[in-house]
Amino acid sequence: MSKQLWNKGFEPDKSIESFTVGNDRELDLRLARYDVQGTMAHIKMLEKIGLLSRAELEILLPALEEISRLIEEGNFKIEEGVEDVHSQVEFLLTSKLGDIGKKIHSGRSRNDQVLVDLKLFFRDELKSLSESITKLFSKLLELSEKHKDKLMPGYTHLQIAMPSSFGLWFGAYAETLVDDMQLLVAAYNITNQNPLGSAAGYGSSFPLDREMTTELLEFESPHYNVVAAQMSRGKTEKAVASVIAAVASTLGHLAMDVCLWMCGNFNFISFPDELTTGSSIMPHKKNPDVFEIIRGKCNRLQSIPNEISLLTTNLPLGYNRDLQLLKDILFPATTELKECLDMATFMLENIKVKDDILDNPLYRYLFTVEDVNNLVNQGIPFRDAYKKIGMEVQNGTYSHSGEIKHTHLGSIGNPANDKIAEKMQKLLDKSGLSKL
Ligand code: ARG
């Protein structure tokens, strides 16, 4: 006999069962600890409103703690014939405790149960993502400080343009991560609201104490309106996906720079041999496979908001089973992004930056704007100075001598790394994420 919670005495077709369950039996394992956490809060609340006795609660809580231990030890499984984590937890309780186990689902539906699991799960995923982002951020800022004075060519249209520096390059990605963190904080706030009590999506005739479960689960507030709470399935995922896509775009871009600048024609940076990969035929090759994989994964991760939009657009109000498929998209994505971030941080710990790149005559035209500006400083109008230097380049008589001196805020000589660090810290402090 199948073990569906909704079984009414007939055997559902096996192929229908496995098609609709899909990957839930595996993916839901990541929700297990949160399912137990949500259930504990729910039954404490049921006891408070008189739907469970004190004695029943005291039997149920240790049984749930035992399931919790099983989960932490990695011994929790969703059995054959059991649809999902919600059913498995209830099944374990009823097999152990009989009727008492059967009481826990009063005033709850799997619709708000999965929602609360997901909110708790994403809340933790966002915290851990913010840790990985912060680590990469700190490494980038540190490298920016360390290589502040090392100059490199800046490009526009991929043509040699103006002098830049490794200080600016590393620092640019650090500051961009602050913008990504702004999105993360927004997604965190959207996630941090309690949907429990919305039941199937329209509330319950029991006097559920939703403030109590909000407090127990440490949500910032309830998602008050029960319909809004249910609508947040899909919307929450979209918010999380936009964070993933934003960070992926920053990281993918950095990965592209690294691949390009490791190329022998540029040769600005390198990594120790053991962090590069070889070719099966060309004995000299040291390839940037790590950054190519990061680039590829990050490019792919940027499609997630679109996937979610397509999956959820125009769904009828209320729960629809399509929503289950959101897990297939997001669960691997958060892990993959974290792996990419941590790998990038590890690689950057070992990056070597070349000195004196700009001594190469290939880069002599980088300094034309410096020379135009020097003439302007001597009182020549900008357009005339531009023409003079332009003609020198044209005639092949241009040469540059002298130091470059950029002093304004955010420029080569003043990359404002302390301000960037402060901006990130303020953001983390305000959101509460720095305490985690
Ligand atoms: N596996 C389901 C999901 O992720 C759980 C909720 C099932 N609810 C239902 N009414 N069939 O959406």
Give a nutshell description of this structure:
It contains 16 helices and six strands. With 436 residues, the protein is mainly α.
Write the layout of secondary structure elements.
Elements (H helix, E strand, L loop, with lengths): L13 H8 L2 H4 L4 H17 L5 H19 L12 H13 L1 H4 L7 H37 L4 E6 L2 E7 H26 L1 E2 L15 H7 L4 E2 L3 H37 L6 E2 L18 H13 L2 H9 L13 H23 L3 E2 L14 H10 L4 H14 L21 H15 L5
Parallel strand pairs: 3-4
Antiparallel strand pairs: 1-2, 5-6
Bound molecules: arginine
Mean pLDDT: 94
Low-confidence stretches: none
- Assign the structural class, choosing from mainly alpha, mainly beta, alpha/beta, alpha+beta, or little secondary structure: mainly alpha
Beta content comes to under 5%
**What composes the largest sheet?**
2 strands, antiparallel
